[in-house]
Amino acid sequence: MRPTTQEYDPRAFPPFAVTVDLAIFTVRASRLHVLLVQRGEEPYRGGWALPGGFVRPEESAGLAARRELSEETGLSHRTVQGLHLEQLRTYSEPDRDPRMRVVSVAYTALLPDLPEPRGGGDAALARWTPREAAAPLAFDHDRILADAHDRVSSKLEYTCLATGFCPAEFTLGELQQVYETVWGVELDRPNFRRKVLATPGFVEAVEGPPRRTGGRGKPAALYRAGAAATLHPPLLRPEGRQP
Amino acid sequence: MRPTTQEYDPRAFPPFAVTVDLAIFTVRASRLHVLLVQRGEEPYRGGWALPGGFVRPEESAGLAARRELSEETGLSHRTVQGLHLEQLRTYSEPDRDPRMRVVSVAYTALLPDLPEPRGGGDAALARWTPREAAAPLAFDHDRILADAHDRVSSKLEYTCLATGFCPAEFTLGELQQVYETVWGVELDRPNFRRKVLATPGFVEAVEGPPRRTGGRGKPAALYRAGAAATLHPPLLRPEGRQP
DNA sequence: TTCTTAATAGTCACTCTGACTATAAATAGA
DNA sequence: TCTATTTATAGTCAGAGTGACTATTAAGAA
C-alpha cells in the first residue's frame, strides 16, 4: 500500500478478480498424473485446464484452494483439511484471461493414488491425465503446470513431501517409485534405501508381516511417514539441481 | 476458473484490490537492513511498513513491483530492470487490511549498500532499518518480512544470490560477510573461500591490483559475480536447514 | 625492525555418495 | 520337489566434500 500519495485510486478502474488454480499430482501405474477438468464455457470451451475457481469475499486463497480441491476430487472435507497444500506462486499477466483481469494464486498438492474423481455434484468433468499428455491447456496453465512440476521435484529433495504420494503404509520400493516418477530418472535401490533409512524421521518401520503382494520376489517391509518435515542432508537428484 | 458451473459471480461482490509489497534487503555495516516507509495515512498512520502499492490495470504484479521499487529507492529504471526480483508469495487473509479486501503479492530483492533512499519525488519517507529493529510493522508485514528473510536465507544456500548484495567488484571477505549477516552465524574463512572458489561460475577473479583498503592486513583480491545462477553442490548453513 | 592484522595456502580425519557385489526370501514353472 | 527368476536387503570400496585446524604471506602500525 502506498502510504502517503494518492496518485492512484483502485476504485476508479475495473476490478480484479482473484482465483486459485490447482496443480494436483498423483502417481499411478508408475506415471505422474495431474488432475484436469474439461471446460464447459468459452474461452477454451471443451479444452482442458487445471481445476480452480474464484476466491470468495470471506475466504483466503488457501481456503478457496481447499474448497475447490474438495469439490473437484470428492475428497472429504476432513481429508482435505489435513493435506499439505503448497502455494506455488501468483500469475498476474494482464492478458492471461481474455474476459477480464484475473489474478490467480496457484497451489500444488500431492495425493496418493485415488479412484477417478467423481463426476457428479457440482464438479466439472475431471480426469487424471498423464503429465506428458497434459498439454496444451487453457490460459497459462501449461506454464503453471510446469512451475508446479519444478517445485514438486525440488521439494522432494529436501522435504518429506514424497510420502504424500504414498498410502498410509508403503514399501521403500513404492517411495522410490515416487522419486523416480517425479524426477524421471532411475535410482539405485540399495543407495536409496540407505539414504532414506539414514534420515531420521523420514520413515518409520511398521511392525507385523509384510503386505501380500501377489507378485514374485521377496515381500518388502512396510513403513509409514515419520515425524520429520525436512530432510537433511537432502536427497539430491542425480544430475544436481535443474538449471 | 470454474469451467462449467456458475454458482458464483465475482461481479456480484465488492471487488478485490491487488497490491505488491516489497521486502528489499541490503547489508550495511555488517548488519542486515530492510527498506521501510512511514505511513502517512490511516490505518497505522505514522507506523512503518514495507514499501508497495497497487497493481495497475495494465501491468503485471512483477512490473508493479519494479515500478514501486524504482519510485521508493530512486534507482534508475535501467538498474531496476536488471535486478533480480523474486516473487515470495501472496497474502490474502480477508482481514489483512481493515479498509477493504486487499490481496497482496510480496516480492523480495537484494541490493548492494546504497545511499539513503531519496525522500523527494513521490516517494514516502523511506529508510533503511536494521532487520531486528523492524517490528512491529503495519498490517501483516511482520509476517511478510519474516517469510522474506527465510526465503533469502535459504536461497543463499543454493543460488548465487549473495552477489546481489555486493558491489560490482568485491572481496571474498565481503561475500562471506553477506552470508554471515543474513544467516546470523560465523563461518570459517578458509573453508568458505575453498567452497566458493570450487563452485564453477560463482565468482571470477578480477585482474589488476587489489583495492586500496586503508585498513591493516594483506589486501584481498577482487572478484566479480560469475555466470552461474545456481550453486552445486549447495553451500549449506552450518546447522542444516531451518525447521 | 618488529608486532599485529587479515588474506591465503595447506593438512587431516570424517562423512556421504555412487557404483558395485552378495545374500535372502518369495513365486513360477519344470 | 527342485530350480530359475525376481525382488528385497546387506555389505564393500573408492572418491568427493566438509569441518576444524595450522602455516604462510603481505600489508600497516608502533
UniProtKB/TrEMBL annotation, chains A, B:
Coiled-coil residue windows: none
Gene Ontology molecular functions: hydrolase activity
Domain Nudix hydrolase residue range list: 15-159
Keywords associated with the record: Hydrolase
SUPFAM superfamilies tied to this protein: Nudix (SSF55811), Winged helix' DNA-binding domain (SSF46785)
Pfam families: NUDIX (PF00293), WHD_NrtR (PF21906)
KW Hydrolase (keyword) present: yes
Name of this protein: NUDIX hydrolase
Organism listed in the record: Streptomyces jumonjinensis
Lineage: Bacteria, Bacillati, Actinomycetota, Actinomycetes, Kitasatosporales
